[in-house]
Amino acid sequence: METVVTVNSNQVQKQDSRQNETLNLLSSTQSIIKEAVRRLGYNDAMYELLKEPLKILTVRIPVRMDDGSTKIFTGYRSQHNDAVGPTKGGVRFHPEVDEEEVKALSMWMSLKCGIFDLPYGGGKGGIICDPRSMSFTELERLSRGYVRAVSQIVGPTKDIPAPDVFTNPQIMAWMMDEYSRIQEFDSPGFITGKPLVLGGSQGRETATAQGVTICIEEAAKRRGISIKGARVIVQGFGNAGSYLAKFMKDAGAKVIGISDAYGALYDPDGLDIEYLLDRRDSFGTVTNLFTNVITNQELLEKECEILVPAAISNQITRENADKIKAEIIVEAANGPTTLEATNILAERNVLLVPDVLASSGGVTVSYFEWVQNNQGYYWSEEEVAEKLRKKVVDSFERVFSTAQNYQINMRLAAYMVGIRKMAEASQYRGWV
Ligand code: NAD
After folding, report:
1. Distance between Cα 284 and ligand 1 center (Å)
2. How far apart are the CA of 35 and the centre of ligand 1, in A?
3. Where in the sequence numbering do the catalytic residues fall?
4. Relative to the CA of 242, which ligand 1 atom is closest?
5. Which of 15, 25, 165 to mutate to test the pocket of ligand 1 (most atoms within 8 A of CB)?
6. H-helix or E-strand containing 421?
7. For 347, what's the count of Cα atoms within 13 Å in the CB-facing half-sphere?
8. Contact at 8 Å (CB) between 343 and 402?
9. Helix axes 381-406, 410-428, angle to 10 degrees
10. How far does the centroid of ligand 1 lie from the alpha carbon of residue 431, in Å?
11. In what side-by-side order are the strands of the sheet with 121-128?
12. Which of 246, 360, 406, 425 is the most exposed place for a label (fewest CB within 10 A)?
């Protein structure tokens, strides 16, 4: 295939201090919540209620390893706000999971559920572990141990987990089985992202990328840009980024750049996405097969109409926000743009569709999965896709029109839309 370009770089980009990053994520989330609460006309008590999760449980999970030793893992489950309904959110298995991150992620889940008008609040869980160095049986014991440890605070009408970083349908299946054994009845609605035979939903695997694609279409319409022939750059080639690149190509766009943790591929004439999809590994790595790679930072600054960060947080910062040439940025990743960069981009009139809106296709189809489990009747892939499209288009319009009405950027508008229902429900319940 044809891939152009210049500089060799096989270096994985270095991240800033992890702890500072997650503290920044939490404090910038809190500062936008504060502003949104103020603009919605609520008092300080409402901000005090929403600025932290209502509940966070830390658990220690002993796991018998294959070599006969016992290892103790630390895990978390955070429940931000359950005024609207049960909390909902993924469980991540990663060496860098920490309490602050889990808290911030559960708050974002509340916002996503609010924006998409789902009958949930936000939750999130995580275990500090490296699943890449664990065997299948060790992972099963860890997954079951986590469910035993948090079983009293989770459940189909309390808090519903789902897959997240390094967790998958198999792990969801073990967790569902463990919960069903504890409860002594089959509980498919306890968890989403399950394999189809255990009550999973059609369309779940590609839901996030579908949601991002629909947001791109809506944003492009507002900016008078045609998707056909538009130049698109996607940072990250994992679950979200790779499907998105394919959907964009299928829609007639020219995907001129993609990247992974090891570098980026760039070709102004368009990349062969099918070939790259075929060659990438299960961790979303493909650039290691090429010598003509550029860095992730170089890729972000290339000329294009649409830029989609779909990898990790803090990629667009005050250092590079001025150099971004895209007209539209749609955030598939969680937190790829800092608050300072958001403001710089707004001043430059770049249309930024924020993560809490753009990356909510996954939780929306998770909601559909839970509804199907509760009713015991399952929808076709086409039905799921149609319902998802309606949810995304309506949510985009709610956020876009709020941004227009208040003359604010779409991130703050999304927070206002996301908080509104939760705040109202908290008030009706007499909490504030
Ligand atoms: P993934 O693990 O499948 O893929 C991540 C991709 O990012 C890989 O290609 C990896 O090589 C690349 N990457 C990792 N570190 C990088 C770095 N330092 N620089 C550049 N690229 C790097 O993950 P995913 O499920 O595709 O998720 C990607 C982002 O989207 C995350 O922020 C995630 O939280 C968010 N997100 C995903 C979903 C989903 O359903 N998959 C839903 C909502 C949000």
Report:
1. 8
2. 29
3. 124
4. 26
5. 165
6. helix 410-428
7. 8
8. no
9. 100
10. 37
11. 55-64, 70-79, 121-128, 87-94, 159-163
12. 406
Nearest-atom number in ligand 1 for the CA of 12 is 18
Please report the domains of the chain, with CATH numbers, ordered by start residue: 9-186 (3.40.50.10860), 209-358 (3.40.50.720)
Q: Give the start-end residues of each E strand in 135-213.
A: 159-163
Task: Look at ligand 1, atom 4, and give the residue with the nearest C-alpha.
Answer: 238
Report how far residue 241's alpha carbon sits from residue 284's, in angstroms, rounded to the nearest whole number: 9
Write down the number of H helices and E strands in the chain: 14, 11
The number of angstroms, rounded, from the C-alpha of 138 to the middle of its chain's C-alpha atoms is 26
pLDDT reported for residue 17: 60
Tokens for 166?
Answer: 């390094």
Q: Ligand 1 centroid vs 282 CA: distance in angstroms?
A: 12
What's the angle, vertex CA 168, arms to CA 182 and CA 190, rounded to 5?
30
pLDDT tens digits for range 370-409: 999 999 999 999 999 999 999 999 999 999 999 999 999 9
Burial of 350 (0-12, 13-18, 19+ CB in 10 A): buried
Distance 241 CA to ligand 1 centre (A): 7
Instruction: Name every protein residue with a CB atom under 6 angstroms from any ligand 1 atom.
Output: 13, 165, 208, 235-241, 259-261, 284-285, 296, 310-312, 332-334, 359, 362
Atom 30 (ligand 1) nearest CA: 333
Q: Which of 312, 315, 388 to mutate to test the pocket of ligand 1 (most atoms within 8 A of CB)?
A: 312
